[in-house]
Specification:
This protein is an alpha+beta fold and about 230 residues long. It is about 20% helix and about 35% strand. The chain is built from 5 helices and 11 strands, in the order βααβββββαβααββββ. Strand 4 and strand 5 form a beta hairpin. The chain starts with a strand and ends with a strand.
Length: about 230
């Protein structure tokens, strides 16, 4: 298990002085890369073979969001794989050990040229997989909700990451930007599920469909093809 102490900085919070969900995803994305780079040469082997790690699903359960300038501990460890899907678990604790957030993301490897799924021999062993009591199970698919067209968004340069596609952090911002600050602050947002279906590239236009009521359901589509789904409860 990899642990990292973090001080929640000014660029990580919103105007309620609580951690943004996009900042949370950035924290977990960055520590995932660090963990893989430290796992028996897995990061180097991926680069040498032009392999990329891609997220397919994420589930987050929030007891409390960290506050501005709060000292927290972010922990991560890989769980056993299932059919070439590699789960990674995350726990955020307060400085006195209170569990603030639990999270799981499902990752898989693709060839950077063909964009087809692949793997590395003995990857579970190289990643040193672990299991712990209380960890979140594999997230299920999000049940499709009803809704209308909410917004269109053109993917820009700042949305693109080192893998050449829209970064997973940006999707949650797209959804939350459909609400005002006041509307966000009045919601508890204790459980978030995200399904990523297709890569999105610079210049694409995403149409956001869904509904915002006691819970939030939004799906992104390009034409008839679903790109992502997010449900916030």
């Amino acid at each position: 298990m990899l642990s990292k102490k973090i001080i929640v900085g000014p660029s990580d919070v919103d105007n309620s002085l609580l951690l943004r969900l996009s900042s949370l995803l950035k924290y977990t994305q960055d520590i995932s890369v660090e963990a893989v780079e430290n796992s028996q040469g897995v990061g180097k082997k991926c680069r040498e073979n032009n392999l990329l790690w891609i997220i397919t699903r994420t589930q987050i359960e929030i007891n409390r969001l960290p506050k501005y300038l709060e000292s927290i501990v972010l922990k991560t460890y890989p769980g056993p794989s299932r059919h070439f899907i590699y789960p990674r678990h995350y726990v955020i604790e307060s400085s006195d050990g209170e569990v603030l957030i639990r999270m799981i993301s499902l990752w898989f490897l693709i060839d950077s040229k063909t964009r087809r799924p692949t793997t590395i021999p003995n990857l579970d062993e190289a990643l040193s997989t672990e299991t712990y009591i209380g960890e979140l199970p594999f997230p299920a698919r999000i049940e499709k909700g009803e809704g209308s067209l909410l917004e269109k968004y053109k993917v820009l340069y700042t949305d693109i990451d080192l893998n050449g596609h829209m970064n997973n952090v940006r999707y949650i911002d797209l959804v939350l930007n459909l609400l005002t600050s006041k509307e966000i602050h009045n919601r508890s947002m204790k459980k978030i599920n995200i399904n990523y279906s297709k890569e999105v590239y610079e210049g694409s236009t995403i149409e956001l469909y869904g509904n915002i009521s006691s819970s939030i359901y939004v799906e992104g589509k390009i034409g008839e093809e679903r790109i992502f789904e997010i449900k916030i409860e």
